[in-house]
Amino acid sequence: MSDVDERIAQVAFNADGLAPVIVQQWDSGEVLMLAWMNDEALRRTLTSGRAVYWSRSRQEYWRKGDTSGHIQVVHEARLDCDGDAILLRVDQTGPACHTGTRTCFDTTDLHAVDGSVSV
């Protein structure tokens, strides 16, 4: 088993063979998007230095930026403590969101109560 295969074997993929990927700008910590990877998408990401995801709607691989030019260059990939989620720290070129915005998390504020303020 190769070193890459050993690292991929540590991931607890769900029943569909997927793991959620939180994508973060490597230098600012800004959360850019959430995507999904299967073992092959993770292999391609770890060995190419470019983010590759599995599209659940199109049922195909997509390397971020191949059509838009908004590439993600990988700086780091980390597994969470349970092994079932991946943190991908990237250098994002252009918008990360398919809507054309920098991040997918800049639209709807759910107005959570600020827990740091006495209620």
Question: How is this structure best described in words?
Answer:
- The model has no long low-confidence stretch (mean pLDDT about 95).
- The chain has about 120 residues and is α+β, with helices and mostly antiparallel strands.
- It contains two helices and six strands.
- It has one domain (about 5-90): Ubiquitin-like (UB roll) (Roll).
- Helices cover about 15% and strands about 30% of the residues.
- Strands 2-1-6-5 form a four-stranded mixed β-sheet, with helices on one face.
Characteristics:
four-stranded mixed β-sheet; globular; 119 residues; alpha+beta; Ubiquitin-like (UB roll); 2 helices; 13% helix
CATH-scheme architecture:
Roll
| Helix-residue proportion | 10-25%
Number of domains: 1
Separation of termini? 54 Å
Low-confidence stretches: none
Give the structural class. alpha+beta
- Main beta sheet: 4 strands, mixed
> How many individual β-strands?
6
The CATH top-level class label: Alpha Beta
Strand percent estimate: 25-35%
| CA radius of gyration | 15 Å
Give the overall pLDDT as a whole number: 95
Give a quick summary of the entry:
The chain is α+β, with helices and mostly antiparallel strands and 119 residues long.
What is the strand and helix layout of this fold?
Elements (H helix, E strand, L loop, with lengths): L2 H6 L10 E7 L5 E7 L1 H10 L3 E4 L4 E4 L8 E8 L6 E7 L27
Parallel strand pairs: 1-6
Antiparallel strand pairs: 1-2, 3-4, 5-6
